[in-house]
Amino acid sequence: MAQATIRDVAREAEVSVASVSRALNGAENIRADTRARVVAAAEKLGYVPHAGARSLSMARAHAIGVVLPDLHGEFFSEIVRGMDKEASARGFHLLLSNMHADLNDAVHALRAMRGRVDGLVVMAPHLDAAELMRNMPQNVPAVLVNCRADQGTPALLVDNVGGADTMVRHLLGTGRRAIAHVTGPSGNLDAEERLAGFRLSMRRHAGVDDPLVLPGDFSEEAGAAATRALIAGGQRVDAIFAANDMMAIGCMLALREAGVSVPEQIAVAGFDDIPVARYLHLTTMRVPIAGIGALAVTRLTDQLSGRGNPAATELHAPELEVRATTTAHKKEGRTRT
Amino acid sequence: MAQATIRDVAREAEVSVASVSRALNGAENIRADTRARVVAAAEKLGYVPHAGARSLSMARAHAIGVVLPDLHGEFFSEIVRGMDKEASARGFHLLLSNMHADLNDAVHALRAMRGRVDGLVVMAPHLDAAELMRNMPQNVPAVLVNCRADQGTPALLVDNVGGADTMVRHLLGTGRRAIAHVTGPSGNLDAEERLAGFRLSMRRHAGVDDPLVLPGDFSEEAGAAATRALIAGGQRVDAIFAANDMMAIGCMLALREAGVSVPEQIAVAGFDDIPVARYLHLTTMRVPIAGIGALAVTRLTDQLSGRGNPAATELHAPELEVRATTTAHKKEGRTRT
DNA sequence: CTGTTAGCGCTTTCAT
DNA sequence: ATGAAAGCGCTAACAG
Predict the structure, then answer these.
(1) Taking CB atoms and an 8 Å cutoff, what residues of chain B touch A84?
(2) Same structural domain for residues B195 and B326?
(3) Is B115 in Cβ contact with A53 (below 8 Å)?
(4) pLDDT tens digits for B14-36?
(5) What pTM, to 2 d.p., does this model score?
(6) HTH lacI-type domain spans which residues (chains A, B) (predicted)?
């Protein structure tokens, strides 16, 4: 036997469907005993409201769409965790759509969500958000995270430039002078901003106009490759600042291979503070990933309920997390390997 | 102006809504020029089909619900990644619902998905699946992952007993005899099975009937605490087998604190092979997490389309991943810290 | 090939 | 307090 519908319940309770709806949704204008009868009937039939029909009729899906780029593991789980926590606290579901490379995919993903969600959280550091918004279903509120934001659309950004500057100053402060930067993939907003911050800071605080920059792509392998190239090229550096933690880890692996000690000979720093960074004692800039996810959902749901000003861009400053890969100070024991 | 509906497009193209539907859904019985006119009108109005209405009318949501326990970061992202990949390849969305502790939450989460999804993937190692299924919306196909499966329901399981046995034999094979096990939370299926496998294997292969078992809860802190207790108690062991990687990491931290060398004095092993395990050179049992997620979705969608036999339980054997925390053989350089 | 129409399951006026 | 009926936006017979 198929799932019971509201009509089955109505028949069973010998009332109209309207009364069932009222009874089950806690309306006031219904007699207590009528409600009881309805509840009993629903219970008996194992009735569960059809959320799809409900949202069509109410024009409210109680779901928010999440469109993400192909994120690395820990970053992904952290941001989704943050969103999920906030969403379920507010009675919303999360409809996921990891998207891949190009704008077309993204647009497709967005369109597929129309009529399923009340709003969107879009993270697309590698795309033109303006172009994206243009192809977005109209009238669907959205919060952009780490996007090349058009002004006017609510957006959450990480202060990558400031973060890179902080890191450079930390490295300079520990006596490093020849600092190389390994970049993220070209076209990626975070990568570009971190690079810009690095350049700016090196010029301003170290008087270096043309610091060493190695191309990368946020993957561990790219970090290792860049480091090997650096060593093979005989470049003399005393610090490597990678645009994210995964690459920094790659750098460390390559340095170990080459017998270069960290941080004695070369200091290594990353960006993001993914959980694994802590175990590897990697100095990095902590980005409150889960917090940003939660905040994006908060802003979106506030916007949906009319509350909260759809205040435009909000900037989040990452925090410097100093660990052993840039300071020899505290010698720690090591798990032998 | 609100989003255009199919009627707006019909009016614009001067055809009936049926024709619009046909044109946009690639039906055959429609003249090419009519279709062109419809497509043009849709384009002009920026029409995007309302997925909610569509699924109500077709009785097909093209979405699958995912109900997960509160998983640790890497495990979570891996399994969701596996599901997402498979789901989007098959034109399905993922509706997420991380659930917390009790059965009530889980039931609530499940009911909230009725009418939004075509099927469910449920992972609930800490709950009674039978009880859960009873409270599940009827007629909604489901695949259970790591659940106390009722026979009859499609299920995916990890061979925890066999995995634990493999690990114990590996440890015995490297000359360890006094092996302690740190368990997961009580009531958790994986935890219980791993413990059972440990006991069984110790009895069978080491002739130990009552091996040392320390209670834990899958968290890093629990691993550290158990280890500290072990040391404080003056117990003499030469290996610690933690029921998951996070706890194994906690063990290693506590051992380092206490100045105990790994693996010389005490070997450490975990279970799961989360990515961080690799960096820490932790010996562990590799569970193909993403693969299981993908497979769950595959089985579910096959079931939805009538394809594939809803074959009941499927068991996946984890693989032993030997690394440095159990073998002193290959000395590796270390990133200084 | 195209249009008319009856739902999908629910909420919500509008009467009563 | 309750019921009848009109949609929400779309698909799918059923007629032409």
Answers:
(1) 96, 98
(2) yes
(3) yes
(4) 999 999 999 999 999 999 999 99
(5) 0.90
(6) 4-58
